[in-house]
Amino acid sequence: MKLYTVQMSKWRVAKRQCIPFVGTTVRTAPDHIFAPNWDMVMGHKSGELENSAYTELYLRRMRRSYMERREEWLAFLQKETAAIACYCPAGAFCHRRLLIPILDAVAKKHGIAFEYMGEIS
After folding, report:
1. Residue 33 reports pLDDT greater than 80
2. Rounded-to-integer distance, Cα 38 and Cα 43, Å
3. What number of other Cβ atoms are within 10 A of residue 98's Cβ?
4. Are 94 and 55 in contact (CB under 8 A)?
C-alpha cells in the first residue's frame, strides 16, 4: 500500500491524482475503523486533553478497533493506494499522523508492503 495523508478540504487534489480518499473523522465517518470518538475530539479542542493523553486514548482505540475489526483493517491495507483524511491542517497534531506508524506496524505484521508517501497539498 502507498498511503498518503490529506486535509479534508484538499479532497479535490487527491481526486485529480486518482488517489482514493478515505475520511477518518468522527463527524464524517463516526463508525470508521480509524476515527477517534467525540469525547476525544472535544476534549482536545477545549484543551482539557493534551496531545499525550489524546495519543494514548487514540492508540488504545486503534488497538481495540484492530482486534474487533481486523478483516476491515487488512482489507484497507490491501488497497494499492489511499489517502486518509481529517480536518486538521497539514503539520498540526492530529490522528491521521498517529495512524501512519500503526498502519505500518500492522502491514509489517501481515507481510503487506507499506509506504507512507506524504501529505497531499
Report:
1. yes
2. 8
3. 17
4. no
CA distances from 65 to 14, 57, 84 (A): 26, 12, 16
Supply the pTM of this predicted model: 0.94
State the residue for C-alpha cell 498502519: 103
Tell me how many domains the chain contains. Answer: 1
Which pLDDT does position 30 carry in this prediction?
63
In terms of residue numbers, what domain contains 104? 2-120
- Cα separation, 12 vs 59, in Å, equals 29
C-alpha cell at 33: 475503523
Cα separation, 28 vs 17, whole angstroms: 22
Look at the block and give the residue holding cell 468522527: 26
Q: Is the pLDDT of residue 31 over 80?
A: no
Q: What is the DSSP letter of 90?
A: T
Map grid coordinates 476534549 to a residue. 43
The Cα–Cα gap between 81 and 114 comes to: 10
- In the block, which residue shows the cell 487534489? 13
Short-list 72, 44, 79, CA closest to 58? 44
